[in-house]
Please model this.
Amino acid sequence: MSTKTSSRLCTLLSAAALGLAALGSAQAADLHNGQTLVAQHGCMGCHGAGLDKPVSPTYPILAGQPESYLFHALQQYQAAHQTPIYGRDNAIMGGMVATLSTQDLHDIAAYIASLPTPLYAPDMTH
Ligand code: HEC
Model:
């Protein structure tokens, strides 16, 4: 490959990478917003300070659960998204998420998924 061709290729690849980065940041979840919303809504009041020690053994541990699962669960608590098969018609959590936007739920799910978890040791998946 000539130097000229490889430098053109390099420019093209950088442009593609920049484009992807821009695309990614437009859709990426905002962990900081997630953290703010969790604090504002007092989620730790029931799920524990690090969302890892619920006040009741019947309340779930949230910290470190998979982001997509958390998002799906949160969305299912919103009346507009409830499907009976998932059984998410819960009065407490329905109230907690009632006013949150879909983007808010994404941000919250990403934040909670990023927290240290007592649920499993990472190497248990091997
Ligand atoms: C008043 C107590 C209380 C507060 C405050 C509360 N939760 Fe919950 N949360 C619960 C209970 C109880 C459940 C289990 C409900 C069920 O049986 O579906 C739950 C379930 C969940 C689940 C499903 C977890 C799983 O493993 O399926 C998520 C996610 C969740 N809460 C997130 C939040 C977030 C985010 C907030 C703050 C916006 C919040 N909770 C505030 C009591 C609370």
